[in-house]
Design a protein that fits this description.
Length: 1512
Amino acid sequence: MTTETYSSTDIAIVGLAGRFPGAENVDALWENLKNGVESIKTFTEAELRELGVPEATIADPNFVPRCALLPDQDKFDASFFGYSPREAEELDPQQRLFLETAWQALENAGYDGDKCDFPIGVYGGCGVNTYLISNLMQSGRFSDLGNISQLQALMNGNNKDAMTMTLAYKLNLKGPAVTVQTACSTSLAAVHMAIRSLLNYESDMTLAGGSWLNFLHQGGYVYQPGAILSPDGHCRPFDADSQGTVIGSGSGVVVLKRLEDAMADGDTIYAVIKGSAMNNDGNTKAGYTAPSVDGQAEVIAAALEMADTPAESIGYVEAHGTGTVIGDPIEIAALTRAYRMDTEQTQYCAVGSVKSNVGHLDAAAGVTGLIKAALTVKHGKIPPSLHYKQANPEIDFANSPFYVADKLTPWSNETGPRRAGVSSFGIGGTNVHVVLEEPPVQRATQSQRNWQILPLSGHTKTALASRREQLATWFKQASTQPLWQDSAYTLQVGRKGLTHRAVVVAQNNEQAIAALADDTSTLRAQGQLTVSGDRPVTFMFPGQGSQHINMARALYESESVFRDAFDRCREGLIAHVGQDIKDLIFVDEADVEHGAAQLKQTSVTQPVLFAVEYALAQQWLAWGVKPSAMIGHSIGEYVAACIAGVFSLEDALYLVAKRGEFIQAQAPGCMLSVALSEAALAPYLDTDNLEHKVELAAVNSPENCVVSGSEQAIAALSNRLTEQGVVVQPLHVSHAFHSSLVSDAGEQLAKLIAQVQRNAPSIPFVSNVTGTWITDQQATDPQYWAQHLAQAVRFNQGLRTIVNLDNPASENGLEQTVLLEVGPSNTLSQLAGRDAEVKAQTSIVTSLPHPRKAQETEQHFALALGRLWIEGVEIDWDALYEQTPHRVALPVYPFERKRFWIEADANIVAQNNHNALAPKPIEQWCYIPSYKRSVPDLTQPVELGCTLLFETQHKACDLLLDKLHTQSDKLIRVKLGQAFQQESDNEFVIRAAQLSDYQQLIASVNQIHGPVSHIFHLWSLPTSEPADLNQTQQQGMMSLIALAQALESQQLGQPVNLSVVSQGLADVSGNDEISPAQSMLLGPCKVIPQEFPHIQCQLVDFGAQLYGDWVDWLLSEQHGEAGEVVAYRSYHRWLMGFEATAKPKQNEAIYRQGGVYLITGGLGGVGLVMAEHLAEHYQAKLVLLGRSTPSEAQQQKLAQLQSFGAQVLVKQADVADFEQMAEVVAQAHQQFGQINGVIHAAGSGATSLISSTDAAFVEQMFAAKVVGTQHLLALFNEQSLDFMVLCSSLASIAGGLSKAAYASANAYLDGIAQQYAQRLVQTGGYPILAVNWDSWREVGMAGDMDMPDGVGIAPQQGIEVMERILSAPILPQVAVSTLDLPARLEATKGNLLDAELTMADAAPRSGGYERPELSTPYVAPEDDLQVGIAQVWSAMLGIEQIGIHDNLFELGGDSLMGVQIMSQLSNKFEVTLSPASFFKDPTILGLARVIEAILIQELQQELAEELAEGAK
């Protein structure tokens, strides 16, 4: 008997997983523990030599050849988690182990993170990354830590901080992800924190645990007297001979939920955590590494108090128990002190340590002890603690509550529930104690289904086969018999649906075992998912002829939804049919013949068929199978119309009954199926002989039609066709359906339809009459339904419409839809399968079996549901049950691990290289724009080829035109206009930003003059007619983007020098007139040469006073570096750069106490950081703007701001909407009286390569930054602010792949700040400053990026930098860079392929890794070019075979790796590649086509030059 009492703070352990020395999983660990197995291996000398242990070490008398080994530490299922081989090799094996263990723990609990709509938290940690130290850093791959690319790649997979966040990302878990580091107590500390997360309702489920891999003791270790390691490789906790521990390797993860939730959800509960506590020793002990009686006693007492559990009720303690001379006595003394607060009993509580079995697992030690204790209270057996013979003389067990469990001991719960304590103490003093109780008894659920559906899936075919074998083995255990229904339910809701899928339907374990093993079993279906996401379903409703006696009878008896829907139809039809349709079709064997005869009558057939199909549809809908489209055949279209809401059920029943009655009253006729296409059949139907008139009744497939007519006419046609060898088949019907012989019935029906309510369809369906999507007008037109009855059924055309075969532009068409036949038999499925094109683009599933297999109806229906799941249709599995079954512990995923390992290079000693891009202290983060005088180089001759001049009405243009006439004999003038026009071979008119005009221009010039080599773009120079912002943007930034796109498409890879001239962009003197709109040119001018390495780009800013020499200087810029910004002022040439500036923080307060601050983007990461600082330290009144309603996390943060004493006004507004902004400002003034400062942090982080950038994307990008800034300036024009901060980005200075529009938007902010700085001096006002922020860590647009330590701005650092920037003197533009900014700009200037961003050359390997399973089939490289490209990819990715259609990103690559690949290929094939062309089709074939096109273009140019030379 037990007397459990549960409280709201109780936590259930609902899932367990782990890998331990000698135990691949938790079940194996428990067997080892019960049987007293020590999993510490002794190595022979031969084994040590094979491991590479030096002879001197083997001979060392202090060397202990024992190790708690974890097999396959070097292996990982990389492709399962989406890692490329190279990434897997460079990922900390501890994190790899944690990933796999956490996945299995979640499966053990019966949950799939993707299906959970509640927050799941992750708490865990790992040990010291010895793989990084001993292998990666010694491998030669990362010898240059100044290389940003290498450093980032290294840190991505080896940063402890990222461990839990990586797991949350890979498993799609959205609760807190917190990495815990408390040394040996890490994993139990993680459990404690995970419990608090549940009790605080931050999470509804948590994963907690840790992993540790000891690569330092491979084969053994050298014993040192007085250290913590055992002299003989045995761990003897509490024993007189104990002298130390053994370091093992392993991992463990537990899944936790609040107990009340776990019981309500039917979870398997291993144990209940009654309470936990955590503290630290402080310095009241002998030293940092020493344990403390006080600290340990306090944490144990606190946990007992939290658990509200008397010490005398604890029957077992899983101790920290390291087997050290000092540690064990202190631990027992602490336990005794804590227990003596409550009881004087002696030796009633057993104590043991799992370290005697598997060694000390460091960061995984605590959770391993917790798992052991949980299994102990669950199973009622206390395993032996090994090697205990006689107590440590410093431990007085006799007068303590404890004794050592030295043998397997039964543990009864007769006197009360089994309870246990678990301790884990970290070196350094962080102590954790947890109190456990046995799990509650849970009642089994009643069996609810005759046939259970068992869905299984795997990442590969072999993994799926392993899952089948696992499940079959599990079902063979006698203990699993009562869990039959629960096991099916767990597979349905608790497993992620992977690519390779199988379903078994069975009535019991034995049937399931047989089907799992038999590849030919009719109870099993299998397939491979070909599309991602919820696959669209098309309901197909068959027509008359598919009916049969007892159709769907088994479903009526077993499925309540079907039965209820059918009964509604029964009741609605009695008045119209005159009898109960159930009695017509559900008949006993004796009445089959009579029932079949009745069912042949059209007046009965059609309403009965409607009822069955309608009920079937309702059953599918109830199970979550919702149609994206529908098609019916004849009467079947009425079911589709009813489901779509055109007719109510009552009206539909009335209409189909009357339809059958009206047809029944028509003259008899016949129908004939003909194996011909409609076109081939047409001549046979063309006759003037009315007596032999035959009409087309249906087009069912490309080579099958049905005709209708009188008995004589059909007989005559049948004979004629048969004589000509055409296959025909008479249909067993009473009338000539879908012909003029039944048109009277259609007219009668139309009159009735006109009298009922009709609605536009809510679900698209295809018309039988037109073979295309039915329109709202047709669906509600009575005459349409009259035509429907008398005209041909265009079923095949309808199917082709659904899959977009005949009209690819259709909006309603579906790709890769599942055709689900919702009716008796498989008639429509067979017809669909006869169209090869339809069949290729669909999957076909039938709801019910062929009439000959009617006895298999229930089995078939269950398997049909499984087939839908196999094809990727989302199923609402919970809807299969009225009472939710339990989740049970089934076999977990069989990972297919392969070796991913980098060996250290014995000849390499890691050295710290001097690194110009090393992180700098915060005092050195600020930079200001600066101009350095330089002399134009006029000594080098300028050779111009085919040159374009984008000219405008400016004097500089006239001067340049004269100069170019003398420099180039191929000068083409390009003017602005309203349409494309070629005025001559050398003069064109184009629109400012119309891509097609630019493409025509470049194509025409190439055809007439050859490739363009030089471009002078002067459209941004001012003219006599002032240009507004939009016009400036169109003629400047948008023009350059269209120009780059046209150059890419029309003369790929041809070198071009592009000189862009502006005026009003640079403030050199501090008094230059600034036009912020000109600043937008910086985006394309910085990014074009980065994305298109063959295009050199210089930006030259003219002063207001034109000097004639500037034209010569401009020509000399052709020799300058790409990406340079140059300013001409008087007789001086200035080069733009950035210089470091000291910005010390002033003593006076930057912000006002109680001040009012408006923050746009105030609910974003950076905005909230600023808001929190202002709230906590200044009790500010905050106006926070965001476009969306605050999330739950944001609402919690807002509540925190108010708790600091701040007043917060949150407004949902679009900063680009002036009226909304005006309303916000007015409300802020009304509520707070004033606004003291504005921080404009709103913006979009979207990116787009120039080749994909269009006006819509630019408009989206500019909305917040450009339009929003204009609105703020207008709204605060007459107000007195302390400051307005515009949050800009380093992108406006450095550019970056895909950041042209983003850089332009931010550059506009920089220009605004410069312009208003001058106004402040001249006319007064308030300071406006632009801050070019580096990436922020943890928050903002780069918040989810994994950055190396020291790179990026931490929130607290951002707050400090902002205060420094706002300290006097306030500068208009400050760039913030955590790395040396000039060195950074130098590294990103121009061609990224030439920048030092690439990894060390990938060394050839003796053997790469296997190609992962991809969505594309493997196609080997076919020629030398493809083979050469594949070799580079293989070296970079670490994959041996790469197909020409394999996508870089599917292989695990990223954009950075793409740049590195292009760098190597550029050198290998001596071509200039652009990121833009590569990322359009990132495959070997795509890249081969680009390289081939460039080489052909180069060859053609060489031939043209040779021909031209020969003609001279």
